[in-house]
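Project standup — Tuesday

K.O.: blocked on the structure for the chain from last sprint. Re-posting the sequence here as requested.
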Amino acid sequence: RHISMLKERFTKLDLLEMQDFTSSYTFRLYEILVCTSGENPHKKPSYEVEELMAMMDVPPSLREYKLFKQKVLTPCVAELREKVGKFARLGMTEGKKRGSKKVERVEFGW
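H.V.: unblocked you, prediction finished:
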């Protein structure tokens, strides 16, 4: 009985979808998005930039947002769009504080 209850608390990842990823960052972003959205396809996951970088285990050399976006986020989103059907329309929106140029949050939607 306890084992069947545990099954409800874990997210299922489709290993066939993930087998062709070329980047460990794509694997990690896929895992984050699937775990966050769960069974609700209308939920738009949103993360603070620093939190997302930590979750994706980004090295200090890529911790500047411009580099992070160019070298990690944009290629990952493109790969997920190409290789995972449910993410074919994956988009990314940047959130800034009013009057600021610094990107504070990233929201994903499809």
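K.O.: great, moving the ticket to review. Residues 9 and 39 are 12 Å apart (CA to CA). DSSP finds five helices and three strands in the chain.
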